[in-house]
Amino acid sequence: MTAEFVLSELQSVGSPEKAAHLSRFFKTGPGQYGEGDRFLGVVVPQTRSIAKANKAMPLDELQRLLDSPWHEARLCALLVLVYRFQDKKTPEAEREKMYRFYLKNTRRCNNWDLVDLSCRDIVGEYLVNRDRSVLYELAASDNLWEQRISIVCTWAFIHRSDFTDTLALAERLMTHKHDLMHKAVGWMLREVGKRDRDTLTDFLERYATQLPRTALRYAIEHYPEDRRQYFLKMK
User: Fold this and answer.
1) What is residue 70's three-state secondary structure?
2) Which long-range contacts (C-beta less than 8 Å, at least 24 apart) are formed by 174-179?
3) What pLDDT, on a 0 to 100 scale, did the predictor assign at position 1?
4) Strand, helix or coil for residue 38
5) Residue 171 clears pLDDT 80, i.e. is over it
6) pTM of the full predicted structure?
7) Main-chain phi, psi angles of 140, to 5 degrees
8) What is the mean pLDDT of residues 193-197?
9) How far is Cα 140 from Cα 65, in angstroms, rounded to an integer?
10) 123 and 134 share a domain?
11) What pLDDT, on the 0 to 100 scale, is given for residue 234?
12) Res 221: pLDDT
């Protein structure tokens, strides 16, 4: 199982029309957040299928995929890591290697889908019962994608009704200038609200006036209309 083989598999199912659409969708133009990214035109279910079939790829070959200019190659490498990490037969020592490998390559997770489809299931799951200070280091980074990783991977904690780090990071990141961070913060706050509406309400009572409107709208999506209007009018 080599990077060359996986890349050839991806190329065989790619589509120039889809590649053009994905390039626009993921904002690859000059000055946009995905500037310079390149697409083969492979849809995510196809990439998932190829990743599952190559789940045993060694880390050095995954590194070659992560170093690829092709978006789908990087996504495939990340999905291989996710599937292997989730495998109950994977030894804990191997999971630690994958976690550290992921952290070494955070800047190759350079679009929101690459972050969102991988960080919770690797970084988040690894840190469930461990020190989480690395998340605050990522949040303090000057790299948009590392900042997004820091908040989105707390989804793993939210699923266990552990909201402390999500709320602390949301407070730190809510004044971020980029709308991709506004969406990420609002999304994770909404997930908190699905588990514990009172906890989210308490947070919003304190910070609704400071949250960007996009983040606030995401956070209150599941509130009744009168409560949504209450918080929106606080802006």
Assistant:
1) strand
2) 174/207, 174/210, 174/211, 174/212, 174/215, 175/210, 175/212, 176/147, 178/33, 178/144, 179/212, 179/214
3) 77
4) strand
5) yes
6) 0.95
7) -85, 0
8) 97
9) 27
10) no
11) 87
12) 96
Amino acid in the structure at residue 11: Q
State the number of CA atoms in the 13 A half-sphere of 192 facing the CB.
Answer: 29
Phi-psi region of 27 (alpha: psi -120 to 50; beta: other; left: phi over 0): left
pLDDT tens-digit readout, 79-98: 999 999 999 999 999 999 99
C-alpha span between 14 and 32 (Å, rounded):
24
Domain that includes residue 187, residue range? 130-234
Q: Could you give the number of structural domains in the chain? A: 2
SS3 content of the chain, % helix, strand, coil (to 5): 65, 0, 35
Given a contact cutoff of 8 angstroms between Cβ atoms, the answer to whether 215 and 185 are in contact is: yes
Tokens 């999304």, located at residue: 187
For the record, the structure tokens of 229 come out as 């209007």
Residue 194 neighbours by CB under 8 Å, 6+ apart = 222
- Residue reference for tokens 């699905």: 194
CATH number for the domain including 183? 1.25.10.90
Tens digit of each residue's pLDDT (9 = 90 or more) over 102-153:
999 999 999 999 999 999 999 999 999 999 999 999 999 999 999 999 999 9
CATH code of residue 8: 1.20.1660
